[in-house]
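Trying the structure run again after the queue cleared.
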Amino acid sequence: MSTVGRNELCPCGSGLKFKRCCLKNRLGVLPVYRPEERHSALAKLVRFAERAEFDGQRKIAFEDFWGDWLDDEPDPRLDELARSESVSIAYNSWFAYDFELPDGRTVFDLFIDREAKQLSSGERAFLDGMQGSHLRLYEILEVKFDRGVAVRDLWDDRRLFVRERAATRQLVAWDVIAGRVAKAGDGELVFETLPYLFPAAIKDDLMKSLRAAHKHYLHELPHKGIEAFFKAAVPLIHQAWLDHVALPPRPKMVTGTGEPMIFAKVVFDLLDRDAANRALAARQDLVDQAHGSYLWLQPAGDMQRSIGVIYVEEKRMVCETLSRQRAEKARDELSRLCGAAVRFRAISYQDIEQALKHAPQRAERKATEIPDEAQEKLLGEFYERHYRGWLDESVPALGNRTPRHAAKLKTVRPKLIALLKDFESHSERQMWAELGLDRE
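Done. Tokens:
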């Protein structure tokens, strides 16, 4: 085996110098604290932060952490999320380590001042390593399965290798995470507390918001450093995660004419079935689909747009449509058209979301008989053909330029790069899901 110099890159591929990575393992360096000492130190810090003396500040911190989300209408999804373990850890970590109390210190600072004598050397070593730690945004450059991730600090472009095992099964290249990096007992970098995960596509928007917030922060507090800013910026990152990942706004569904979309059913009692069918068949804008149903169309430029479908049943006539306005139009026009052959009974409405919630579940997809290796090859060929064609298609996100053209334009190239990163991270996840394979 060749000898590796202390200042050379570590052969494990971490990106760190050998002396800062695997050398200590070969030399048998003992960790400065054990996992159980970390757990006990955290438990003591949590109990300290829960003291009644901090009740008022905890309330202020909670309101800062959630911001305008607390002003919205009650949402069961938000309540469930607020009670979840991951969000509780995120809030409590920020309150203990980062939230500035009226005297300018943090709960963490007070805990160290008051409780240091009751801590073991290992507990103190862990807490010393957490001094100054704070959340920052990182871009995943490479995932080394079951070992860790190579990341780029999006604020100052530093490259780091962070040891992590569990998250390597969910992360892919170009994901963006907001994490608190600190040294483990053996000196390697790890994520302390659970990181926030963002899709690659929103990286630029996140950084734009963060830089705008930093500019405002410096205007208000010019004497504060970047560490203080990131500690104060955790609520901004948390709320961005709510907006883009955890609770993104539901898409507003509208009809082709801009009306809010809702399932509507207009019901008539059928008094004379034959007369009703004759009246419907006489209308040129009603297309007989046989089996007692008619498609109701209206002109839309050079095309036609569907208003709804009319069903003539044994004892009733029903028009199903997708807006209140269309339902009211069906009530009035079908009453006039069919006259004494029908009698209007009622209109029922069902929200799109409710309808989807109560829709019958699709049967589980039958397992394919094609071997996994063959599936992977076929999918790979499909994606290759798709993306080769995409290179020469106009893309709205690139100002209707082709990706090949955008790559030559300095002003548009960053948008193209962001788009490609998003495609790459999304397609990697999609490939695994499509094949039904576990990333483990």
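The mean pLDDT is 84. Worth checking whether this holds up in the mutant runs.
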